[in-house]
Structures are given as C-alpha cells and as structure tokens.
Amino acid sequence: MDAVTGTTERFLEARLAAQRSALWIQLAALAVAVGCIALAARLQSPINVQRKDLQLVLHSDIYRDLPPKYAWTTAAGGTFRGVAAHILWMRAEQLKQEGKYYESHQLAKWICTLQPRFPQVWRFQAWNMAYNISVATHTPQERWQWVYNGIRLLRDEGIPNNPRAVPLYHELAWIWNHKVGARADNFHWYYKREWASLMDNLLGSPPRGLSREEVIDWFRPVAEAPQTLAALQEAHPDVSALLAQLDALGVNVRSTTDLEKPRHPLETEFFEPYTRYRIDRELASLRASESDNQEVFPEQPSTLETFFQQSPPAALDALLAYLRAKVLREQYKMDPVFMLELTGRLGTDEPVPIDWRTPWSQAIYWALYGTEQGRQLDRVKEFDLINTDRILLNALAMLARQGNYDFRINTKDYFDSFLAVGPDLDYVEPMHQMYLKLGPVYAGKDEDVDMTAGEMLRSGHVNNLQSAIVAFYWAGRHEEAQRYLDYLARHYKNTVTGETEELYLQGLDSFVRSQMQEMVELYHEAVYTIHAMLRSAYISLGTGQVEDYTRAVQNARLIHELYQEKQGDSPEGRQTLPKFADMQAQVLANFVTDVSYPLYWRSLVWRREQDAIKRRFYDMIFSDLKKQCERMDVDVKVAFPEPEGMDAWRERHPMPTSPEEISEELSQQP
User: Fold this and answer.
1) Residue 353 contacts residue 215 (beta carbons within 8 Å)
2) 534-564, pLDDT tens digit by residue?
3) How many whole angstroms separate alpha carbon 226 and alpha carbon 613?
4) Which member of 123, 176, 292, 583 has the greatest number of CB atoms within 10 A?
5) CATH of 77-173 given 1.10.3470, 3.40.50, 3.30.1360, 1.25.40
6) 166 and 388 Cβ atoms separated by less than 8 Å
7) pTM for this entry
8) What phi, psi does 581 have (nearest 5°)?
C-alpha cells in the first residue's frame, strides 16, 4: 500500500512539474508572439512606405480614400469577402442566363462593392453589360441602357476607385470606340444619336462656319468657369438675380447627382427647357417674314422660357458656362480644363476643335487620360499602355473619316434625332503626328524608327495615310495629298527589298485610281471617299469647271451604287449608306457654311447647284448663312437665294416647329 501511495505522489509531483514547465513555455511563446507582433507593427509602416515607393501596389492602404459604402463593406467582410464574391459571381451568371438581367446587374454591383480595389472585377462586369447583356435585349432603348450601364460602371465607380489602373481606361475607351463608334452592333446609330443628344442638350451644338480658334473659344468659358457659386457671383454680380429667379421657379442650381442616376437633375430641370428655347430661337429666324425680322416666341411661353428670354445675355452666358462645367464634373466625371487642353495636345501647330458629341472624342479623352495616369507608375504593363494607345490612334483616324456631325436633336425622343456623319480632314494631321509621337515609345530594342511609327504601328499608320491621300485628292486638296504620298515613299520602304514601293512611284492620279478599287469594301471608307469627292466637285463648280464637277459627282455616285449593291441586304441599315441625294445635300450644306472658302465663291456654288439638292437642307442652314452674311454686310437672300419650289416642298414636307421631324422627312425623300 505504501508503495502504491509513493508511486501516486511521485506521479502527481511529476505532473505538476510538467504543467509548470508547459505554463512557462506558453508564457514564453506568448511573450515571443507579442514581441513579434509589436516588431511587425513597427515594421509595417516602413514596409508600406517601401511598397508604395516601389509601386508594388496601387494603394498602400486599401481602405483609405474609399467612399464609405465600399470601405465599410470591405472592412466588415474580412476574409469572407472572397467567398461571398465567388458565390455572388456564380449566381449573377446564372441569372444572366435566365434572362433576369436586372437581378444580375444588382449582384454585379455587389461584387464590385466587395472588391473595389480589384480592377479586373470592374472591367469584366462592365464588358459583360455592354457586350453580353445588351445583345440579349431587343429594343434600341434596352440595348443603350445596358451599354451605358457598362460605361457608367467604369467611368463613375471603377476608375474613381482605381484612378491609375490603365486596363479600366482601356476598357472604357474601347466601349466608346468600338461598341458605340463602330458598326458591329445593329443599333449603333441609336447609340450615337443618344450620346450626341446628351451632349447637345448640355453643351449645345458647336457653331458652324467659324475658324478653329473661334470654335475652341466657344467652349473656353466652360473650362474657365468658376467652380463654386460664390466665385461665380463674385465674378458676375448680375448672376445673383438670376439665381433668385431660378429658385422661385423651382430650379435648384445647387442640386447634385448620385451613382444611381443616369442623368444629372439639372439636365432635365434646366438644360432641356433651355434646349427647347434655343431651338425655338433658331427656328424663329426661319419663320420671320421679309417685312418683320423680329424673333417670334410662343404665344404662351412657359415660365422658364420667359426667364431665358428676359435674362441679360452676359449673365445668362456666365451661368450656363458654370452649370455646364458642374454637370460635366459631377455627372460625366470629365474635367472641362482637360477637355480644353486636349485641343492643343494632338500634335498640330494650331489647336484642333473637338466635338464632344462623337463617341470617338470620348475614346480619345479616356485613352489619353488613362495612359497619362498609368505612366506615373514605374511598373505599369507596356501591354496595357500600347493597347490603350492603339484605341487613341484609331479614334483619331475615325474622327478624320466620320467626325463631321450634322445633328439636329429631337427633344421628345433622342433616338429619333437626325444624325449624318462625314469626314473631318482636320484630324488627319493629328492622327499622323500621334503615330510619329508613339513610334519611338514602342520601338523595339535598337530599332531606328526614323520619322515613322515603327514596326509595331506601321500597318495602321500606312493604311490610314493611304485613305487620307484619296480623301484629300477628291476634296481638291492635292498639295496635302501629294505631301502624304511623298512621306510614304520616303519613309516606308519595302520591308524585304528596302526599295520604295512601286505603288508610291506611279504618281498621285494613278495611286488614287488604284485605291478606289478597294473603297467599296468598307462603310467608313465609302463615306470618306464620297464626301471628299463631292467637296472636290463643289470646288470645281465654284471656279466654273463644270466638267470636273460633273465627273466628280458621277464618280461619287458610282462608288455609292457599287457599295449599296454589296450591302443592300444589311439588317437595320447597319451597313447601308444614306440616299445619294441626301449625302450630296449634306456636303453642299457643309461647303456653303465653311468660312475657309470665300463667301463669294460659296455663293457661286449655291446659285449654280440644282434646286432639288438645295431644297433638302436649305431651312437647316439658313440661320448660319444669315449670320455669316450679316457679318460682311451682305444680303443673304441675294447671296444664297431660296431655291425655287420651296413652298411646294414645304407643303409636301411641312416645316416643323422643332426639328423632331427632320429625320423622318429625309428618310421618306426619293
């Protein structure tokens, strides 16, 4: 018994000793752990500084500067955020396959909220909306809604949360340039009209018939507008009275927007009434009789119309500039100052006006802004930069082909607005210079680009210049066409033999004829060439060279017929051209309002052209012609007389009190 008792006591003593030893070990381990944590905490700050300095991460603190809804969700979710995002992602895809797009859209927003600093999440969800969900819908309104949802997701949320993530800028510029700007989507014309209407409603139509400098100065007040109401009132004391009147009318100029609103409250409460007022003023000059040239306003104008009519012009202009800049910043996340700067950053000696109603201007803005942000990083991927710069180059080329907008907003239904596009050859040189600027940037090791775009960008540069040469030729600008042909001959030799390409040695006339054989293959090339040919025809007509005029019109008509034969069965008119008479009338309208040509010359062209062509656009350009003639103390009715048969024409096509019916009129004309 004593032996058993002794054994038990020894066991208990050993156990207590082991427990005491384990306790000391645990305490020592805890002390070491606390020390390590304390040391890690002390090292975390300098490590974060080094990570930031070395640009190993875009955000040293993932929660800092996040909007509250993202910061709270991200912090609260902890390690479960990844699991939740994975489950939501699968559920969103399932809902999309079931056609439940709105539920899928909501889940996509939640996924982005859970991972706000992960650019690929924003990029995928935006692409999914713009390309996958949109094409599963059936009406133009539905499609535009989803395309624009993708744009807004990137522009309004993804980029603000990841301001230096180049892939997000690339995706946004791509959607503008390809989904909205190209013709891959059957409803692309609706997208273009909707966006042009939004910008036309906000900024107004860029003035026609002015110099480059004058058009840029038209936008300058928006870029230079004060950023606060107090600063506006201090600079323009008369605005205070206008603000009080607007408050009495229920228009809150201090209103802001949020992420759920596709439009700013001021766009509907203030700018839409102003657009209707602006259109009425333009039409008033057309309705004025010879004996009464006073403006005609509605018999019972709305209160806002009275406000616009009676406001002092200088004070109203200052208020408009301030509100336009405010909406651009708050709703469209665009910097008016950067928008103005872009006109002088396209590589030309003189700034080039930008029409913000086009999708390609948006692509240029976000591509250039994005690459500038990305180049601030030491470890940005060159792949992302070059792909974004390619969009920039393509957008400039598309502006040269289709950047000249003839647009009349339909204030009742944006999708029914009238839009006709044509070449803007002022963008050929910016496109050319941008290729030369980016050539050395992406040149290979030891590659000597020597005044070219380098091998990386060679094919795009050559193809775009070849198209431009043809357009300049048919526009009668042979010196510019020859200059670009000489450039190709000098700098782009055959890659195998090193000799000058035979194509460039046959002379300008032969080069253009050889290129014409390919012009009927692509829509934008056909439009590009037809417009250039018709402008060349009017130059000949102004100088009395009737035979040259006739030949150019015949060639343009031939290309039109050849192209239409190939594209006659295109669905929704996606690839078909407008009627030839409408295209000719559009070019005539552009020509006679272009102040780069002498007024007398333009007057000769107008009086020599057929009345059947002039009648189609006369009422649309009369106001611009009248203003130009008044500047030079010329009677517009003598310089640009009304075409014969206008009364009968208006009876068959009643003159609208607003331009809503213009698109329908043109579509019904023979």
Assistant:
1) yes
2) 988 898 898 788 887 988 898 899 888 878 8
3) 46
4) 176
5) 1.25.40
6) yes
7) 0.76
8) -60, -35
